[in-house]
Specification:
This protein has 328 residues and is of the alpha+beta class. It has 3 helices and 18 strands. Among the domains are: 134 residues, Immunoglobulins (Immunoglobulin-like), CATH 2.60.40.10; 82 residues, Immunoglobulin-like. It has a 5-stranded mixed β-sheet, with no helix packed on it. The protein has a 4-stranded antiparallel β-sheet with strand order 2-1-4-9, with no helix packed on it. A 4-stranded antiparallel β-sheet has the order 15-14-17-18, with no helix packed on it. Helix 2 crosses helix 3.
Length: 328
Amino acid sequence: MEEDIVPVVPKRRFPLLPLIFGVVLVVMIVGVAAVVYYQTKLVSFPAPSPTSSAIALASADPSPSPSSSPSASPKSSPKTSFKPVSVIPSLAPTPTPVPRPTLDIRFGNPSANVKQTIDQGTGDGRVINREYTSIQAGQFDEVSSSWSPRVTVCFHMVSDQEIKGSDLKFTFSLDDKVDVEDNLGQYDKLEAGRLYDWCHDVTTDIGHHTARLLLNGDKSLKESNYVNDVARLEWDNLKDNVAPNFTLMGPNDEGTSGTCLFPQYISDNVTAYVDLKIEQQIDSASWSTFSGTRYCFVGTKGSQHTYVLKITDARGNVNEQNKTFVLY
């Protein structure tokens, strides 16, 4: 018996190459379509150009850039307006703190005083006559030159740090003329917060005077405050206004010498006796210099006469006395 022969049908196979080619072709078509689409979008909605951003940075006007189209999408407007804000803070320099010096030299309170001293020749040392501070009106009466009068100004100064005395320079001016330029080398150092004095004899000349002390005028010390580095003091040396003192004695009958008058107890508070001007006038005659110790009239008994004695000191103060009498 013959066996039935079943034919073997081979399985159908799909070719792989056409499939790959088809996929590649589809990707290329999609890519071309995407490129065409995005190019169309960029032409319709242009983004802000770099030139527009630069204009916005330089301009303080918040209005839109002239290069922006009125039909631009809302997205393009915020980008143009916000770019300057994000860039400006990065351009501002950050300040570097600089430490300030703390050294401050100033005058104490009162900043200065002026005093007059005299030595009356008794050998007991100096005597303070008057003293004024910088907030008072200093006025000194003229005194006798034989008392060796002196007028002295003293300045009081203080620093907030320790300073070598030789480093602290000063200029002292009297009546707007420089009188002393030096430093405080007499002090080894000025301790912080302590008062130190600098004193100087000035003048006894009559009139108004001004003393001025400038500390660290050349700015050789790094001070933070120069407001209180100048002290100024003013005062007046008053001329003597007291007239000489004397008493006119007489008339006395001195026999053959006649009727005599004479001054007694002559003195002056400032002018020495030898510098006093003593004059006399007899009746209506001119003034003449008084010499000797007295003046005597010799003439007719019972006749009337007038005698005047005048004494003038160095400042022009006058004391005049007279007597009218009848000869004995």
